[in-house]
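User: Can you predict the 3D structure for this chain?
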Amino acid sequence: MNARIEELLSTLKKKEDEKEKNTVLWVLAIVGAVAAVAGIAFAVYRLFTPDYLEDFEEDFDDDFDDYFEDDEEE
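Assistant: Here is the predicted structure, written as structure tokens:
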């Protein structure tokens, strides 16, 4: 009789441990899914956002060239 009670208690303890593991697994899965969605959203944002720095660099190069062309004409 005593062995049967210990067997039932150990079975209950295993079930509780499995529930805790399942909870941790679900939390990690949700965090991973949110991170994946955030990464995809950032990638789409970077894809569709124009790069204003290229325009700035081109304007700077044009001004730089104009400055030296003026000096050569004098």
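Residues 56 and 62 are 10 Å apart (CA to CA). The longest helix spans residues 2-48.
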